[in-house]
From TrEMBL:
The protein's role, per its UniProt record: Part of the tripartite ATP-independent periplasmic (TRAP) transport system.
One annotated Gene Ontology cellular component of this protein: plasma membrane
Membrane topology (UniProt): Multi-pass membrane protein
UniProt family annotation: Belongs to the TRAP transporter small permease family.
Protein name in UniProt: TRAP transporter small permease protein
A single MF term (Gene Ontology): transmembrane transporter activity
Subunit architecture: The complex comprises the extracytoplasmic solute receptor protein and the two transmembrane proteins.
Xref: Pfam families: DctQ
Membrane-traversing stretches: 21-43, 49-66, 87-109, 150-170
Keywords of the record: Cell inner membrane, Cell membrane, Membrane, Transmembrane, Transmembrane helix, Transport
Superkingdom of the source species: Bacteria
Species: Boseongicola aestuarii
Subcellular location per the Swiss-Prot or TrEMBL entry: Cell inner membrane
Domain Tripartite ATP-independent periplasmic transporters DctQ component residues, every copy: 26-176
């Protein structure tokens, strides 16, 4: 458990630290959007690209937020509890979150497979087949806006973010379990 916690926390720490600078990319895109609307021909890509950057910023920064414990909590009762009681409560709630993330991950994988041109009911095997070369890309999904970007890159980012969040939640589960046992983390 300690090795798993160490590896997952290190990966999410690095990804989270890189994603902290995503806000500057978002600001640059929105600044260009404002400048181009005021002085030039408005750019078609800026608003949608800003949305994509914001999704990546939020989804890939989420596991880092969970790791730091900076997520929003209702401390009406929780703040006065002992560390062991907090660990029991967190252990229970993290199980609910892991279930929810599994459902979200399945939906994200299905949506990504759809964006790559797959209309079947086995998205995991399709994506595995793409990696091994057994499957081929279908008609790639595009946005319905004037810019019409492909949607699979942002959907792949969402899959990666959901997967990293799931790994981080399992790490938090292990941390709470070790706290209950009285072991050092």
């Amino acid at each position: 458990m300690h090795g798993y916690i160490r590896i997952v926390d290190a990966v999410n720490l690095r990804v989270g630290r890189v994603m902290m600078y995503g806000i500057f990319a978002l600001m640059a895109i929105l600044l260009w959007s404002s400048i181009s609307k005021a002085f030039f021909v408005p750019s078609l890509w800026t608003l949608e690209m800003a949305q994509f950057v914001m999704v990546a910023y939020y989804i890939l920064g989420g596991p880092y937020s969970v790791q730091l414990g900076s997520n929003v909590r209702m401390d009406l009762f929780y703040g006065d509890w002992s560390p062991k009681k907090k660990a029991w409560f967190d252990l229970f709630t993290i199980c609910l979150l892991i279930f929810y993330l599994c459902v979200l991950l399945y939906g994200a994988v299905s949506s990504t497979a759809y964006s790559l041109g797959y209309w079947g009911s086995e998205p995991f095997s399709y994506l595995g087949g793409l990696v091994t070369g057994a499957e081929e890309l279908g008609r790639l999904e595009r946005s319905s806006t004037a810019w019409r970007p492909y949607l699979w890159p942002i959907k792949a980012v969402i899959v990666l973010g959901m997967f990293l969040m799931l790994l981080q939640c399992i790490s938090e589960f292990f941390k709470d379990y070790l706290r209950i046992k009285g072991e050092a983390i």
